[in-house]
Amino acid sequence: MDTYFSMGGHAAYIWPSYLVAAVVLIALLIASWRAVRAREAQLKTLRHARRGGAGETE
Predict the structure, then answer these.
(1) What does the pLDDT look like over 4-45, one tens digit per residue?
(2) How much is the pLDDT for 54?
(3) Using CA of residue 37, residue 40, residue 45, residue 48, what is the dihedral sign?
(4) Closest-CA residue to 43 (of 11, 29, 8, 51)
(5) DSSP assignment letter at 58
(6) Which residues contact 14 (CB under 8 A, 6 or more apart)?
(7) pTM, 2 dp
């Protein structure tokens, strides 16, 4: 098992690259979730303004 984790002597380069990739993917996931929540809030605001301001019913 130690030979697998040492990656043929290249573990010092491989494991940090895995860590960087994981951090980037997690950051993108969090940014996407925040963007979706912001757009949903914006849509809710626009729908509320349309109902109240124009006097139309949906």
Answers:
(1) 888 888 999 999 999 999 999 999 999 999 999 999 999 999
(2) 55
(3) negative
(4) 51
(5) -
(6) 7
(7) 0.70
Contact 46, 40 (CB under 8 A): no
Q: How many residues does the chain have?
A: 58
Please spell the DSSP secondary structure of 11-41, one letter per residue: HHHHHHHHHHHHHHHHHHHHHHHHHHHHHHH
Q: How far apart are CA 24 and CA 31, in angstroms?
A: 10
What is the per-residue pLDDT for 2?
85
Dihedrals phi, psi of 56, to nearest 5 degrees: -95, 155
Which structure tokens are listed for 51?
Answer: 């109902």
